[in-house]
Design a protein that fits this description.
Length: about 300
């Protein structure tokens, strides 16, 4: 029997199999590099086109510190970029803790039965639902039923609902990537389930969780449909109340109930105007929006790097 096995193994051409595998690896790697090159080239071309078209406004300091105007050369993005930052703060504060907690519960605490299977299927499906559906949900629930109005808080909540499935799925995948030996070692040291999760699993999965959160926030910062659906304005000549005040307790939450606009809506309003100067202004706003998105992703990469290093 051993002689037969040795004869069978000796008849295998290992060199040929190795060459085929290397060829497949080279083909797959080349395809990936080609797709990456196309994606990066498209982004760079779009950015350069917007930068060249919007250069006159980008070089004007008043463009960043002025409110929108019916005169294209006087129009600025002050209310738009401030509103975008405030909405994204609300989105992050609501979506990230809820998404991480939900992902942790489904992966580590929930019992495996038909009910959790239904939840998992729905969470995965919700990640692909068109964004305008979330806008209609927010319009009917937050604006009409609860009477919360068209405010920064409602905008942050609808975008949080939009990216919540993304954060849940990425959190679960990050937790699944942690070797089971780490859990067993923690339990062997006497740690309970929560101590194991909080002291070992979550810190180890932190880079993946942060990546998923930033991917979700990057999608949210460019969304227009759900924000328009809840009634956001495209022309706002005022800023929300500052969250920092001079009186105790020095923090105010009145800005959550303020009207707002965001960069995508401001750009949409300018693009729809017939004047050529508004197209230049919209191109400049597009450059600022791309820079804001890239800056957010760069911050995520830095945080992820520090998390992995620690």
């Amino acid at each position: 029997m051993n002689t037969l096995s040795e004869n069978v193994l000796s008849g295998i051409d290992y060199a040929s199999i190795s060459r085929k595998n290397r060829s497949r690896d080279i083909i797959f790697a080349s395809l990936g590099i080609f797709v990456l090159f196309i994606a990066i080239t498209t982004l760079v071309a779009l950015f350069l086109d917007l930068a060249m078209r919007g250069a006159p406004r980008l070089a004007d300091p008043d463009f960043y510190t002025s409110f929108p105007s019916r005169r294209p050369l006087d129009a600025g993005i002050l209310s738009a970029w401030v509103g975008t930052i405030m909405v994204m703060v609300v989105t992050a504060v609501v979506a990230v803790p809820l998404g991480v907690a939900a992902g942790l519960y489904l992966e580590e605490y929930a019992k495996k039965n038909w009910f959790t299977d239904v939840i998992e299927i729905n969470v995965s499906n919700l990640a692909g639902v068109p964004s305008i559906v979330y806008g209609l949900l927010a319009l009917g629930l937050f604006v009409q039923t609860f009477g919360m109005g068209e405010t920064v808080l409602v905008a942050g909540l609808v975008l949080a609902l939009l990216i919540l499935p993304i954060i849940i799925v990425s959190t679960r995948e990050a937790i699944r990537s942690i070797p089971s030996e780490l859990r067993e070692a923690a339990y062997g040291l006497g740690a309970n389930q929560w101590q194991t999760m909080s002291m070992y699993i979550i810190p180890a999965a932190k880079p993946g969780i942060i990546t998923g959160a930033i991917v979700g926030l990057s999608r949210a910062i460019g969304e227009t449909a759900p924000i328009i659906t809840i009634g956001a304005l495209s022309f706002i000549a005022f800023l929300p109340q500052s969250p920092i005040t001079g009186d105790f307790p020095f923090i105010s939450f009145e800005w959550l109930n303020s009207g707002f606009t965001v960069m995508p809506i401001q750009m949409f309003g300018w693009v729809s105007r017939p004047q050529a100067d508004f197209q230049i202004t919209a191109a400049a706003a597009g450059v600022v929006l791309i820079i804001m998105t890239l800056a957010m992703n760069a911050l995520a990469i830095y945080i992820r790097y520090r998390a992995r290093k620690s």
